[in-house]
Design brief:
Chain B: Keywords: Transit peptide. The structure holds two protein chains of two kinds. By secondary structure, chain A is α+β, with helices and mostly antiparallel strands. Chain A folds into two domains: 133 residues, no CATH class; 136 residues, Pseudouridine synthase (2-Layer Sandwich). Helices cover 34% and strands 21% of the residues of chain A. In chain A, the strands form two sheets. In chain A, strands 1, 3, 4, 5, 8, 9, 10 and 11 form an eight-stranded mixed sheet that branches. In chain A, strands 6-7 form a two-stranded antiparallel sheet. The two termini of chain A are 39 Å apart. Chain B is mainly alpha-helical. Among the domains of chain B are: 207 residues, no CATH class; 72 residues, no CATH class. Chain B contains 27 helices and three strands. Chain B starts with 18 loop residues before the first helix and ends with a helix. Classes of the chains: A alpha+beta, B mainly alpha. The interface between A and B is large, with 53 and 68 residues. Strand 2 of chain A pairs antiparallel with strand 1 of chain B.
């Protein structure tokens, strides 16, 4: 059995969970905190719970107590039954970046303990997020989800995949039109050329309107269809509304039956821990895995290099934690 | 990191507190530690003449008393050690060395303790707490062991724990650091109170009791072990509660000490008169000690309620109560509401509701909206009939997300076949009962990794 505080010390870093649908992100955090407290309390947490070395009785020395087992509890007031469990859930500072709403599922990047310092860097990096959004033709509801109040029924047999492809392309083009505006550069400038040449043109900050970089149909079997959407600064409600508007564009109506985030920058489904794996052991293992995703070249996307101050860059390049990045983590 | 934020003013009604008061009010004080609990290490070196006098006094004059108050610890080998207690004892500093290996307290740590009451049968109990043996040995040796030679903290400190219950004249030797008048938890008093330390040795979780409110904390603090606690433990032993459960029961329901002992016996007798066997009664008390807090009239009314509400025979009522003793203390209105849910909203017949109650009484105590969500999924999504659900009504205790995950996986594999008349039948029991590691190969016939991959598509 490992010494509890040793495990507690290991619980510092960034990890990645698969948020199930139907629960809020805050419930996920509470769930993880509860599990961690329970797991660590299962390990020896008080000094007297450590096993002491047993000593062979020495016949030359008349020692009364060595025949018994060594004990370390000197006063009962130090006992676990008196002091209670060593760890309680709020001892584990768990945070997440770029949350998901209640009805969506998918990759959620979380931090525990001092790992929170990385979250601001992750947020600043403005990673691309990839969603699989499932829609269903034939209905329209007040909140775009199947559980809402049905506002409208419609037919959908005239919808073909080719038409849906076209609409998706329109959506993508319509968003990318504003790509340089959101990035804060003039479209015809040298700056814009350099940004575009460096790779994906990210929005200037996290308050710009949602930007969709890619929208493709990956599954089409009427009345259901699935879109793969690459975006930055989106919200899940925005994506649900997008499905609704695609439905209207196709002379029909559609509801959004599933929103699932399959990638958050370098964090993919492979890294994500399922609900049943939210244990101390798995999280510690996951922290070690995710550590490789937090190298400076991954955290510093092109735009944040221009923004970040020189010493921050130096720190990251040296492999230190980006302490000077002051922007708080996104808790939307 | 002891993050306990409850503030319990344990001595709320205590008035001005001095050590003498504490003793006179018989709050079960056991220890006089002249140098205060705050300096456990210091006393070994500064132990002076006065203290050794006290020790001699206790071991000489009140020897019988002392032994009794040491709770008659019978330790193998202890007597042998006591015989040669006049010999020079040298405790080596290598008494114990830390090693970075850890283990939980094992069963061999427990001690056999005789709880003897004059004129009554001796009942043996086991103190599940560890660390008792060393303390008792050193206490018996207390007079002769030269403390300055006891280099090890484990031995030297423990004597002040076991100094027997103080007489009023001993109380003159007040502690230099008086006990706090209020505290956040019991820890400040445990070392000084026989009651509290004995409860801890029995395995009672005082930290849990602290959460049960100020009133019960004050009450427990003022109890005297021999007078207020021992009879109840003997009572529990008498009705057959096993030793390892004693601590848990008291932790769960410390209110038992506020009840009259005669009343408890009357309630046990009542249950037995209703043809519960004594094994059943023991089992019920061990699982839900709160049932002893209910008066006989209320017990009777509750049993009658179940019999009348579900039109049960006496045997069926008893079987249900034994299966789930919480029913006795459960709110009637919630049961009625859930019966309504089953009957009117889900559409089970009276007979079927009765069968559900008899086979899994806990289903009637689940929250209504969860029951409805489960039924909705089982009946409308999985397409199971009412009769199929009654066949294995434990399914109503299964969380809906587990049902959903496993059902959807079986659907994706083409194995969701819930009709017993066709091949590849998956029973409800098989659907939910096993852990993933067994369920995947046995029922879904796939590996766990494939199942996990599927879960990430939900």
């Amino acid at each position: 059995m490992t010494w509890g505080p040793t495990l507690y010390r290991l619980l510092n870093g960034v990890f990645c969970v698969y948020k199930p649908k139907g629960v809020h992100c805050n419930s996920v955090v509470e769930h993880i905190q509860r599990n961690l407290a329970k797991d660590l309390n299962g390990h020896p947490c008080y000094p007297y719970e450590r096993k002491m070395r047993e000593i062979e009785p020495n016949p030359n020395v008349k020692t009364p107590s060595v025949t018994t087992e060594p004990r370390t509890l000197t006063t009962l007031s130090d006992h676990k039954l008196v002091l209670g469990e060593r760890y309680i859930p709020p001892d584990f500072r768990v945070h997440f970046v770029t949350g998901l709403n209640k009805h969506s599922s998918g990759v959620l990047v979380c931090s525990v303990g001092s790992g929170r310092e990385y979250l601001s860097a992750i947020k600043m990096a403005r990673y691309l997020r990839v969603y699989h959004v499932r829609g269903k033709f034939g209905w329209a509801t007040d909140n775009f989800s199947p559980k809402g109040k049905i506002m409208n029924r419609s037919t959908y047999h005239h919808v073909k995949k080719s038409i849906l492809d076209k609409v998706c392309a329109t959506v993508q083009a319509g968003h990318q039109r504003f790509m340089f505006d959101y990035a804060g550069v003039t479209q015809d400038s040298q700056e814009a050329y350099e940004l575009a040449a460096a790779g994906i043109v990210r929005p200037e900050h996290s308050d710009t309107p949602p930007m969709i970089y890619g929208c493709h149909v990956i599954d089409f079997s009427l009345p259901d269809f699935t879109l793969e959407i690459h975006s930055i600064n989106e919200t899940q409600n925005y994506l649900m509304k997008l499905i609704h508007e695609i439905g209207l564009e196709l002379r029909s109506t559609a509801i959004c039956t599933q929103v699932r985030r399959i990638r958050y920058g370098h964090f993919t489904l492979e890294h994500a821990l399922l609900c049943k794996h939210w244990t101390a052991q798995e999280i510690i293992r996951n922290i070690a895995t995710c550590k490789h995703l937090l190298t400076p070249n991954r955290l510093l996307t092109d735009l944040s290099i221009t923004e970040a101050e020189g010493d921050v860059l130096q720190q990251l390049a040296d492999g230190q934690k980006p302490l000077l990045i002051k922007q708080g983590p996104d808790k939307s | 990191m002891f993050s306990k934020h409850i503030a319990v003013n344990l001595f709320s009604r205590a008035g001005p507190l001095t050590f003498k008061n504490l003793v006179e009010r018989r709050w079960g004080l056991v220890a006089v530690h002249r140098y205060g609990a705050a300096s456990p290490n210091g006393n070994t070196k500064t132990k002076d003449k006065d203290e050794s006098q006290i020790l001699r006094q206790t071991s000489g004059e009140n020897n019988a008393d002392a032994l009794e108050l040491m709770q008659n610890v019978s330790v193998t080998g202890a007597t042998k050690i006591v015989e040669k207690h006049n010999e020079h004892i040298n405790v080596e500093s290598n008494f114990c060395e830390e090693k970075r290996e850890f283990s939980k307290a094992t069963s061999e740590d427990s001690e056999t303790v005789e709880l003897a009451v004059p004129g009554e049968k001796k009942v043996q109990t086991r103190f599940v707490n560890s660390n008792f043996r060393t303390m008792s040995i050193t206490a018996e040796l207390g007079a002769s062991v030269k403390p300055q030679k006891l280099l090890n903290r484990h031995v030297s400190d423990s004597h002040h724990l076991i100094v027997p219950r103080v007489d009023s004249d001993l109380a003159k030797h007040e502690t230099s650091t008086p006990l706090p008048t209020s505290a956040y938890n019991f820890a400040a008093y445990v070392d000084h109170s026989e009651t509290l330390s004995s409860l801890v040795k029995l395995g009672v979780d005082l930290s849990t009791i602290e959460h049960k409110g100020r009133e019960i904390c004050d009450f427990i603090l003022k109890m005297d072990f021999n007078k207020d606690v021992r009879p109840y433990i003997l009572f529990y032993k008498q009705i057959g509660v096993t030793d390892d459960k004693l601590g848990k029961i008291i932790t769960k329901c410390p209110y038992i000490f506020q009840q009259e002992l005669e009343n408890l016996q009357v309630r046990i007798n009542y249950l037995k008169s209703k043809k519960f066997t004594s094994e059943n009664v023991t089992e019920m008390v061990m699982r839900k000690p709160h049932i002893l807090l209910m008066s006989t009239e209320r017990l009777d009314a509750k049993l009658g309620f179940y019999q009348k509400e579900f039109k049960l025979t006496g045997h069926e009522v008893r079987a249900a109560i034994v299966k789930y003793p919480k029913l006795i203390i459960f709110n009637k209105d919630d049961i009625i509401e859930n019966k309504f849910n089953f009957h009117e909203l889900m559409g089970f017949s009276d007979e079927q509701v009765k069968r559900i109650f008899v086979s899994s009484p806990r289903a009637l105590t689940e929250s209504g909206h969860q029951l409805l969500a489960r039924f909705d999924f089982l009946h409308n999504t999985m397409g199971l009939s009412h009769e199929a659900l009654v066949q294995w009504s434990q399914i109503f205790m299964c969380r809906v997300h587990i049902l959903e995950q496993r059902h959807r996986y079986l659907v994706s594999l083409g194995r969701a076949q819930y009709d017993p008349k066709k091949e590849n039948y998956v029973s409800l029991h098989a659907l939910v009962s096993k852990l993933d590691a067994d369920w995947c190969p046995d029922v879904a016939k796939t590996s766990v990794a494939q199942f996990n991959e599927f879960l990430k598509t939900l």
